[in-house]
Amino acid sequence: METLIVLFGAFTATLLIIWLTTKRLELSFSGSVAMALMLVFTAIGHFVFTKGMAMMISFLPWANAIVLATGIIELVAAIGLLLPSTKVLTGNLLILFFILLLPANIYAASKNINLQTADYTGKGLSYLWLRIPMQLFFILWVYFSSIRNNQKSK
Fold first, then answer.
1. Which of 28, 49, 87, 121 is the least crowded, having the fewest Cβ atoms under 10 Å away?
2. Contact in structure between 45 and 58 (CB atoms under 8 Å)
3. What does residue 117 show for φ and ψ, rounded to 5 degrees?
4. What's the pLDDT score for residue 16?
5. pLDDT tens, 104-147?
6. Rounded Cα distance, 14 and 85, in Å
7. What's the Cα-to-Cα distance from 25 to each of 10, 112, 148, 150, rounded to whole Å?
8. Residue 106: closest CA among 128, 138, 74
9. Whole-number Å distance between alpha carbons of 106 and 104
10. Has keyword Glycosyltransferase (predicted)?
């Protein structure tokens, strides 16, 4: 749920700052900034709570390394969303990344993996099921803020 608070909070703040300074409503740019900040937030979580997040993919070799790598991917994507020359490519790759994460979220929810162990204070099983529609929401967010509107303007 914190990710949604960061996403909507950053989106609202960015919209307001741009509106107050330029009197323009920049939905696409604000959406990209918000997603970038959310990705930084989630990347930090991957670095701080590596052991707890690795539980979801513990059946894979190098689970902790995969969690750290996803954090790095999120940081790189955050930067890519903010650069006009890489925004559309980053958006496409980020959608692919979110699709690739779906099986881990489905696996964790379907196997009743309790994230409250392994030094990680998770939200429990209901939160795991909520992550699946959130992932789909993030895909739509990236599409509309980084890809669709930028392809129309070319």
1. 121
2. no
3. -100, 180
4. 96
5. 777 777 766 655 444 344 555 566 677 788 889 999 999 999 98
6. 21
7. 15, 43, 17, 15
8. 128
9. 5
10. no
* Residue 142 in tokens: 């990236």
Residue type, 7: L
Which residue do the tokens 């590596």 mark? Answer: 50
Cα–Cα distance, 139 to 91 (Å, whole number):
9
Can you read off the two tokens belonging to residue 2? Answer: 């914190």
Q: CA-based angle 88:3:138, to the nearest 5?
A: 35
* CA–CA dist 92, 18 (Å, integer): 26
One DSSP character per residue, the chain reads -HHHHHHHHHHHHHHHHHHHHHS---HHHHHHHHHHHHHHHHHHHHHHSHHHHHGGGTTSTTHHHHHHHHHHHHHHHHHHHHSTTTHHHHHHHHHHHHHHHHHHHHHHHHTT--TTSTT-----HHHHHHHHHHHHHHHHHHIIIIIIHHHHT-
pLDDT recorded at residue 151: 60
